[in-house]
Amino acid sequence: MRILGIDPGYATVGYGIIENDNGKLRPIGYGAIETPPSLSTAERLILIEKRTTELVLDVTPDEIAIEELFFNTNITTGIKVAQARGVILLSCAKLCGALYEYTPLQIKSTVTGNGTANKTQVQFMVRSLLRLKETPKPDDAADAFAAAICHAFTAQGIKRGLK
Prior knowledge:
The chain is 47% helix and 22% strand. The chain is of the alpha/beta class.
């Protein structure tokens, strides 16, 4: 099963693609969709929609896992990220009906065993579980891999470390 993980953002949308063969995970690719700050909000959202559509059509995932938003103190940034996430959800839902959403707590708990894990701990486990030599960059790509891994373990009831 091919899973596309997405870490939504306004400036940077991370993505990670894995193959899940009965709990045996294999990385396929990763990267980021970046939007230049020189563009207007509408232009950035159009770019996110266009690149997300291209990504889904290119990857042809069986399922898509996307991280839910966690709002911090900057409400202006949160609104723009929410707008971008809406565009991403719409694009993904239109192209792949199997769309799953996970909270940051669910992702951290599933990938590390600790819902309060920090970014370094999540990145370490992503590298370990996918047998990567280096941590995926940007950080948003590692977070997207974590969403995909969370879905792989959650969707098939496979617990980390058992396979």
